[in-house]
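Sample pair:
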Amino acid sequence: MPIRQSFCYPMFHKAGTPFVDFCKAAKSVGIDAVELWNREGNYNGVTFDELVEAARSSGLAIASMCGHNSLGDGLNNPANHDRIEAELKASIDLAAKHRIPGLICFSGNRNKGQSDYEGAVACAKGLRRVARYAEEKGVNLNVELLNSRVDHPGYQADHTDWGIALCEMVQSPRVKLLFDIYHMQIMEGDVIRWIKRSAGHVGHFHTAGNPGRQDLDDTQEMNYRGICRAIAATGYDGYIGHEFMPKGDAIKALAEAVKICQV
């Protein structure tokens, strides 16, 4: 399958550059979509609906958005389930309205006295409350895999097998993983093998160079050309979202990333 590439706008945004102009420039270097995290819209006072309209007028789709609050206090705490259910249903409605294929979901940090198995069970119970609604609306719930060693100490969804087990507990075609390549390189390495192992459970990918979470250049340790070929070989047809912090000019960094990841 050809690789469709997106970028996470909050990582690339620079004050003074109009959103629509940045989207047009990104489109010109081969980007297919943009990822907007905050559904309430907090980008210089521009509403979410206005951002979507501006992106589409620039030729970009919307690849993904956050489904609920918050990263550290998430689905593994049953006390959050009422809140997260309401937030996810509102986000699912918004995603369906704007043809956004997936929402980002978070396990939350490990709770004291809770095993990883118990945390997965709690997350599965929370996701089951909205899985059928997501199925009806055609929207994926993508649980993000993050590293707990460097960037997010204590985060529970920090290994691929844990994420796969969670998906299998829920048993919904709309509950998937956001496989963040940068984060899983830090936790596990061997990312191509893990990508192949999790094929069918992944609804979205994120990229960044490691170490440093910057450009996909030759100062970092991963071969993104090989990684993207492996992703394409699985038949994955979603987006690969660039979530790195550009060292210099953001559009030049995106242009180089597009070339590296093209299959």
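The domain at 4-261 is CATH 3.20.20.150 (TIM Barrel).
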